[in-house]
User: What shape does this take?
Amino acid sequence: QVQLQESGGGSVQPGGSLRLSCAIDGYSYGSYCKGWFRQAPGKEREGVAAIANDGKTTYTDSMKGRLTISRDGAGSALFLQMDSLQPEDTAIYYCAAGGPIFPRLGFCSFTEDEWIYWGQGAQVTVSS
Assistant: This one.
């Protein structure tokens, strides 16, 4: 049974940073993507960062330059470093695994319905 558990959420002032972690247990499908999604109040869930098995990364344009996704060598942990956070970044952030790859480009797809495994989410609040 695959389990994903986020940690590291919390409150931060505008311009601050947070680092989210995701513990991944029982997942061994290396050919798929791991990533982070978020859902802001009143909005649909959206992908923000993903990493393929070969290390190729994908970021949403709205947060590009402010995010860094990484993983440990064993594939049992996923991280999201978020910098220069703004109030509009307030959302629940979800760790996900089993995501699809665009076969020719090698980048991960953010099509939510195609991701298989999800964590419970971690609240991130950016407020002064």
